[in-house]
Design brief:
With 207 residues, the protein is α/β, with parallel strands linked by helices. The chain has nine helices and five strands, in the order E-H-H-E-H-H-E-H-H-H-E-E-H-H. A five-stranded parallel sheet has the order 3-2-1-4-5. Helix 6 packs across helix 7. The protein is globular.
């Protein structure tokens, strides 16, 4: 089992857009951990994020733009890579939700753990981490490099939720550059008017 790789489920990608915690983890550890996600998970995130925002009568473009800007932190795995593990994956997940087989297959192919909020992966024989426990995995890789609060942070792009901002007293220059890069990408893609939520979400992660 590789100790420096994680396979992300679609719900983690969505959380990376809606909140600060997952996004902070990705930007902080991208140089240390290889974050993989099957192509279908990225497609699911692109499909369901607009639905979440449309329910609140809010534009989805800023959310999709932020999701796209996070792709530079991820390795998106094509089905041709993980399909060799499809049969084994389906057997492991069929009693829970067989639609999740691409995540299991990717983890089997890469010999990696899974990061998800979905309990359907429990019992699949693959190490599975949820966001409220992922710091255990990450801190094992880099002891002492704790750059995020252990509680959930809900002040991201989800306009229906408000929560405490993280207090990051150990922000490194590299992390600030990561957020600056995201801000620049978002500005050039959607302009000032579309950057309002994005800027506040990114800024709140480094305050």
């Amino acid at each position: 089992m590789s100790s420096s790789m994680l396979v992300l489920d679609a719900n983690i990608l969505i959380r990376a857009v809606l909140g600060n915690k997952v996004r902070t983890i990705l930007t902080t550890y991208a140089g240390t951990v290889d974050f993989f996600t099957p192509d279908v998970c990225m497609a699911d995130a692109q499909k369901y994020l607009p639905l979440l925002f449309e329910k609140r009568s809010l534009p989805a473009k800023p959310a999709l733009t932020l999701l796209a800007s996070l792709e530079c932190l991820l390795h998106i795995v094509d089905e041709n890579v993980y399909k060799s593990s499809a049969e084994d994956a389906r057997l492991r997940i069929k009693s829970r939700d067989i639609r999740d087989w691409p995540v299991v297959a990717t983890a089997l192919t890469l010999n990696s753990a899974i990061w998800t909020e979905d309990q359907d992966f429990f019992g699949s024989g693959i190490p599975t981490w949820t966001t409220d426990r992922i710091h255990i995995f990450l801190n094992h890789l880099l002891p002492g490099k704790i750059l995020f609060n252990s509680q959930y942070l809900t002040s991201g792009l989800d306009p229906g939720k408000k929560g405490p901002s993280p207090i990051n007293t150990h922000i490194k220059p590299l992390q600030i550059l990561s957020f600056a890069k995201l801000a620049m990408i978002n500005f050039y893609k959607v302009g000032w008017s579309g950057c309002g939520w994005l800027a506040s979400a990114i800024a709140s992660s480094i305050i």
